[in-house]
User: Fold this.
Amino acid sequence: MSNIKGIIFDLDGVLLSTDRFHFLAWKKLADRMGITFTEKDNERLRGVSRMESLEIVLSLSEKPLTLSEEEKIALATEKNDCYREYLKTLTPADVADEVRETLAELRKKGYPLAVGSSSKNTRFILSQTELTDAFDAIADGNDIKNSKPDPEVFLKAAALIGTAPENCAVIEDAEAGLEAANRGGMLSVAYASAVDCPLGKVKLHKFSDLVNMF
Ligand code: B16
Ligand code: MG
Assistant:
């Protein structure tokens, strides 16, 4: 793995987790619409874009729903407004010391580091947790047309750190993200909830193991 020269990190579920906030915000919307939405259902939304997540939530409705594009955008905005209220409660303490120390070590070793996330709230989350300066580049949901499993966000991140895709490793906690990394020609590293996903080329059991992995 000595060909790895740059490292791209997924945000949610890798650098920190806002799963609970996503769940509470989607559940509030689902409750209002009479849709049953469980934590198990929430797991299907991991790494999936906001509008695709909305489609999954709506598909759980027992009564048929016919919604216009405008109505769907309004529902996604309602969920996001609620989610952002939760995000405002994030502080630097929501990022594990192990994560901060590992990022600093990797930088010291000379690896350019990037974030590659589907979330349009990436910059807000990084700012709330004072993690922005740990990275050389950020590519997120605002910068792309196609969400994971399309490799666009990772290709953008690789370009921003000036590293060829085949020389990049991608650390991911979602199947869609691992597929995106593979399709982009990068080394997919499966972590946390995706650690046993067969799409991962390498498993990462402990975040700090990254220091000696490449
Ligand atoms: P937003 P990641 C993803 O972040 C989350 O895993 C996923 O649950 C969420 O729907 C998606 O971001 C979009 O987020 O609504 O904030 O734009 O894992 O790619 O960092
Ligand atoms: Mg993720």
About this structure: The helical segments are 19-32, 39-43, 50-59, 69-87, 97-108, 122-128, 152-160, 175-183. Residues 10, 12-14, 46-47, 173-174, 177 surround magnesium ion (ligand 2) (CB under 6 Å). The mean pLDDT is 96. The CA atoms of residues 23 and 106 lie 32 Å apart.
